[in-house]
User: Fold Tetratricopeptide repeat protein from Tunturiibacter gelidiferens.
Amino acid sequence: MEQTVHGHEDNLKEYTIGTEAYGRRTDFDPGQDTIVRTEARRLRSKLKEYYETEGKSDDVVIFMRTGSYVPAIRWRASLDGQSQVSTRTANELWVEGDGVRVALTAFQAHANDPIASACAFGITDDLLHRLVQAPGIKVVSETASRSSRKNSDSLKEGGELEAQIILDGTVRSEHNRLRVSARVSTTPGLLLWSQRFDAATDEDSLLKLHDAVAAALLSRIAPRASIVRRYLGTPTQTLYQFFSKALAAESLLEEGTVVTISDSLKRFEELVLEAPEYGRLHCGVAQCYMALAQRGARSSKEFVSRASEACKRAIAIDSNAIDAHSTFGCILAQEWNWKAAEESFRKALRLGDQHAAHRQFAQFLLLHSRFDESWKHFQIAEGMDPFSARQKSSIARFFYYSRWHREAKEYYARVMQYGPLPIEATLIRAFTEIQMGELKNAVALAQGVRRRVGTVQLYLATVAEIFALSNEVDQARSLAVSSGLLAEQASLSYFRKACLALALNEPAKSLEFLSESFMRKEAELPWIAADPRFDRIRGDATYQSIVRAVF
Assistant:
């Protein structure tokens, strides 16, 4: 407690406690001498017993999470007069153990479909290879029949199930397209998650497709809690229920539209009330707020503040969570704390490899025009999940900002194998087409998006920009006026208005909007340093003063 109160939680390691609290010698080996873990279990039990009996009315609750030696100090929530939500404690989510035991069932395909059969075999093989290497996962067998759930032979001595999680799936092919359906279930039969991956294929790309599906699947379901990744704990069946709901919310976030992100945020915030000690949920809340802040929200500063609060909670729950530290790096960047942001990203990557961490760090580097470093991390992230919609949008932005036109053409020819581009990536691609002088292509892309987005001003403003920059100025102005895109009450950030005004050849108005964006410290503003849309005003004193102030 003394170390925690004085902010020295980092000192609370097993070796330090053993030597300083229990008087062990300097050659103390925690792997051989389990006194610290034994006493920690006893202390957790005593604390739980106390707060369930004589301490049940205490205003302050002290507990220690499994796998950690840092005491957590919390106010007991007072919900008198309100409808109470049944919440889950850390002890209900994790038990001491050695990670997650996973069984992989061979992916299935129709016997008369040789391409799908070959792909099913390849995905199973590549997925097994990746599972064996994934932190926190123990592969208990290469294959496991679903009928084994009812087979007592699948039990260890003492009644413990051999596998906790079963992965399986199917592969179908039709007209040079493959559909891979993957499922994650608990051994008792609860379906936790299902995901479809649609891809174009030919014989030359089958091997890459096998690995791509296996990588994408694992990147989405792999353990993120450090207690599991370090083989110190095992999820309970209660945790798996929240894990299933978290995956559903993350799928909505992954789609990347304003509507799906808002829906994802709502789900995460509801889940946090039920499982406040599940750090992944708080991190999800933070990521949703950051995603909305980066999509033209007028209240982006408030969103960043809420994201910061949620992310700090996630780190307090699990100080070794990769996604929490990488998300916090994004938040620090939006607060223009560049040095601390980079340190947070690098800390996340020291803790382990994760698709989102590499992608987020790559975006940070892109913002600073560190293109070669950025591309390195984008390539790693793409290798871990080439199907990711957020990844596609981020790489589209990279090619536009870096002006790597040859590589952009190669990328867009290749990435379509992994499904269509999301709306955001399509719009950014249109800007790249304008850079390359392909104005008709840009207009066609913008018109396609316009038919899909209804009256959402965020997308209509970007469509109007593309029209203007493609010499369709009358069409751009008509859309801007009819949709009220530059009106005071428009639900757009001043940064987005500045982009549109500049495209409409109104640089003075654009600079006014940028100044207002600066005063409001909008989340998107730091992009002005690298964004090619501002090339024509880079020599302006107001623009330069804003860039200096931000960086």
User: Anything to note?
Assistant: The beta strands are 60-64, 71-75, 94-96, 100-104, 108-109, 137-141, 165-174, 177-186, 191-200, 233-235. The longest strand covers residues 165-174. DSSP finds 24 helices and ten strands in the chain. The domain at 100-234 is CATH 3.40.50 (Rossmann fold).
